[in-house]
Amino acid sequence: MTVMTSGGDLLAELNAYRQAAAQQLDEQAWRAQTFQLYYDGEQDVPALMDTEERRVFRRFLRESGANWCELVVNAVAERLQVTGFRFNDAGASDRAWAVWQANAMDADAELAQTDALVTGQSFVLVQPDDASAVGVSITPESPLEATVLYEPGDRRRRVAGYKRYGEFDGVTEVLILPDVIATWYPSEAMPVVEANPAGTVGLVPLVPQPRLGRSPRSELTPALSIQDRINTTIFNRLVSADYGAFRQIWATGVRMARKVIVEPNGEETVKAVKPFELGVNRLLVNESPDARFGHIPESSLRGYLDAVEQDVNQLAAITQTPPHYLLGAMVNLSADAIKAAETGLVAKVRRRALHIGEGHEEVMRTALGILGDPSAADTSAEVIWADFETRSEGQRVDALVKMATLGVPTQVLWERWGASPQEVERWQAMGAAEAAASPEAAYTRLLAAAFPPAAQPAALPPE
User: Using one digit for the tens of pLDDT, what is the confidence trace for 165-194?
Assistant: First the structure.
């Protein structure tokens, strides 16, 4: 590690960026932690009871959580799968995918995307790595630990990246500027300043729902209040079931027997003796003519169940999540009915993919720039996603066959099928190998070897 001596002006600049980034991260982490607790089902259950009663019914509070928030996020996250990159230079597409896979981003991208959907944003760090086979490392970063500062008035130009991590052994802070990287270690007052070999701020945000002038929006923003209502209703149902789900017997005019209990300290306590033992094979008998018996019927829980179902339906409508995802109710649904129910979800996924894709494209341009690849300047590059819609294999094949009759090229049909650029390339090579092994190709090669071009027959001889 090379330590650069920093002058007063540079140190003041670093501390200014550090202070601004730390304050932004504090606010960002607090907001992200709130959404993360709901996604993990670890948020407090709001119960309409005072402190003493909350202690009495603590078990009910633990059992009252029904984690619908996770389903809302996963319904989007499971459809966001990166299958490749498309650059103007086909070779650059292959190189980008090789870098992507070498860093396990075909799996880790899902982690970054899920956190971004939950908390509103996540980050990907791109930096040179001599130990890597591809010369660059790409790692997802938590919004609880990382943030980015932008140039005032420009929502895309990053001027600084900041990461803060560590707990027990102290906190380490890393500030990334285009020309230098400064690191504050727990036991050091002065930062270690190094030249930034990447020459750019390699911390790239993934933001599914960016806002102008406001913090990025989480997928769970409209769901929190509904989730709280559902949990409160479930808690009240559990309490009602414990106290009122069984029929209670009452009696009047019955003389109660008493007994005296001597406590260990010598005090005497008078307690009533239960006059009857209830059971299906027992008879209540009393000789007093004034005695009366009756019962209090059990409480119906139907209202609580209906309230939860109504809240879940509202959650499905507001978050554009198909009801059968949440309720699990699928009775004789046709393919067209399922497609219609998922229309809102598919449209939402396309919007999320548009903005997340911008982040992935910036990640790959940054990585290629570090490697000195000229395609790093290709601003037309785009992410290739797996199909967002749910289609049966028969429906997809039928649509592709109809497209082929219109003259659509075979390579486009393969892409519409969902093949990655690497699969398309492999299929083309396999098709060329099969064509070269055909009898027509063998006969053509034989003619080329035996006759001059002008004397070659135009076609195979008749059999």
Answer: 987 778 999 999 999 999 999 888 899 999
> Tokens standing for 139?
């790692």
Residue 15 has pLDDT above 60, yes or no: yes
Could you tell me if 155 and 165 are in contact, meaning their C-beta atoms sit under 8 angstroms apart?
no
- Domain end residue (candidates: 256, 273, 297): 297
Tell me the two tokens of residue 217.
């929006």
pTM listed for this prediction: 0.77
Q: Which two tokens stand for residue 140?
A: 């997802």
- 346: how many CB neighbours lie within 10 A of its CB? 16
Phi–psi pair at 205, nearest 5 degrees: -85, 145
Q: How many CA atoms lie within 13 A of 305 on its CB side?
A: 6
Confidence of residue 322 (pLDDT cuts 50, 70, 90): confident
Is the CB of residue 35 less than 8 Å from the CB of residue 218? Answer: yes
Closest to 258 in 3D by CA, of 247, 243, 274, 237: 274
Query: 229: part of which helix (H) or strand (E)?
Result: helix 224-244
| Positive/negative CA dihedral, 224, 230, 236, 239 | negative
Q: Which domain holds residue 97?
A: 1-244+298-388
- Count of structural domains within the chain: 3
Q: What is the number of other CB atoms lying within 10 angstroms of the CB of residue 121?
A: 27
**Mean pLDDT, to the nearest integer, of 303-318?**
88
Q: How far is CA 289 from the centre of its chain?
A: 70
Q: Are residues 277 and 251 in the same domain?
A: yes
Domain endpoint, select from 388, 404, 426: 388
